[in-house]
Amino acid sequence: MPADLLAGPTAAVDGRERVALVLGAGGARGLAQIGVIEVLEERGFRIDAISGSSSGALVGGIHAAGKLREFDERLQRMSRRDFLRLLDPGWRRSGVLQGARLVDAMREVVGDPLIEALPVEFTAVAVDLQRQREVWIRRGRLWDALRASFAIPGLFTPHRVNGRALVDGGLLAPLPIAATRLSDVHRLVAVDMHGWPQRPPGQPAAPVQDAPPPDRDSLVGRFGDWLERKAAGDGADDAGDALRMGLPEIMSRSLDTMQAQIARVQLALDPPELLIRIPRDVCQFYEFWRAAELIDVGRAEANRALDKAGY
After folding, report:
1. Which of 95, 116, 210, 218 could form a disulfide with 157 if both were Cys (CB 3.0 to 4.6 A apart)?
2. Considering 144, 168, 192, 281, which one is annotated as catalytic?
3. Predicted TM-score (pTM) of this structure
4. Catalytic-labelled residue, pool 51, 54, 55, 183
5. 125-144: b or e for each residue (b if 16 or more CB lie within 10 Å)?
6. In this predicted model, what pLDDT tens digit does every residue of 237-250 receive, in sequence order?
7. Is 54 a residue of the active site?
8. Spatial distance between the Cα atoms of 6 and 47, rounded to a whole number of angstroms
């Protein structure tokens, strides 16, 4: 991308280029977007508007609240054991996990602000299953918006906002470019979570240690046990053998495949001025305890894209 694409009479504020940022859905690898934001700010960009889906909404909303550094520090202190302790059973047919403990833990760091009071314009994207449409949440409590946006169907219970039961925004808008176009910032940076894989097909991810002690008598305990076996490398993660995958893995890969295809269409219809791609195999969707490694990946990919664009 030529450098003058981001130039213009209203593009710079205090010597920094104004941009709108689109953050994509991608489970745990969405944490790589923390590194992307760090690099953009280090290189002199001013992020004036953010839209995000799922984990992209989580990262974007926390940055819009001015608490990304504190959230980053909290994440990097968390082990896999710490993360699994935050998984609370939904006790409903609509989802395995309720998500209240996760939100409460993050609220301790970020607070409970209103979206309209945030210093950066923010839009969280969720999906109304009954009406089969995207929902752009631009007002109200930040954590209501974020909880709705990352409510992965079947995993987290839907979250009710303004009388509507909402689920993960990545279902229809894994890269919510249109939601950011409401901003008066004309230059757009997008982060796609479905980049070309780093590892050759069939090469397994490195095993993760620090095994948790799940309660195997509960549904959440069995889910935690599945996470433990996957992290230890039980042979099915990257082998391409769908017959050996468990239900959570089939669900996550199916959702990821759908999101990748929709994101390609969104990029073709409304291309951003700068696109940063995160390799789709940097982690499994549940490996939020690998925050430090994922943030480094985001930094590396952002630097690579900006260097290629001439910045």
Report:
1. 95
2. 168
3. 0.82
4. 54
5. bbbbeeeeebbbbeeeebbb
6. 444 455 556 666 77
7. yes
8. 13
